[in-house]
Design a protein that fits this description.
The radius of gyration is 14 Å and the shape is globular. Helices cover 70% and strands 0% of the residues. α3 crosses α4, α4 packs across α5 and α5 packs across α6.
Length: 122
């Protein structure tokens, strides 16, 4: 499960196609841009603008669409706006905390273990 899927799962029934259309993106662009942008924000060390610029450079998606993605996602998640969205990403109670199965503060090793399990231990 990716960061975007986890957040949208918390929001309940979110229509990805409608959200993508609202932003002038395809659903695939929304997923790619959303995962990349949220990953950069969750990794820390970048503010929203830096993360959007970095995600745009990495994905080739337009910067203005990625910048509009955070407020659109925040509106889907209800109260808290962008700050609430970012809070859901981090911390022990956030999505990254849920992915950190061994509680060592680093979800990357746990995500790698999940991926290894999905690939049959390769």
């Amino acid at each position: 499960m990716g960061l975007l899927d986890g957040l949208l799962g918390q929001a309940g029934n979110v229509d990805i196609d409608a959200l993508a259309g609202q932003l002038g993106m395809s659903p695939d662009e929304l997923r790619t841009g959303g995962e990349t942008l949220l990953g950069k924000l969750a990794g820390g060390g970048q503010d929203n603008a830096q993360a959007a610029m970095s995600a745009a450079a990495e994905t080739g998606l337009p910067l203005d669409k990625l910048q509009a993605l955070l407020p659109a996602l925040a509106s889907q998640l209800g109260e808290g706006g962008i700050d609430g969205l970012l809070a859901k990403l981090g911390g022990a109670d956030g999505l990254l905390g849920m992915l950190d199965r061994d509680g060592d503060g680093n979800p990357i090793n746990d995500i790698a273990g999940i991926a290894k399990g999905l690939l049959g231990g390769r």
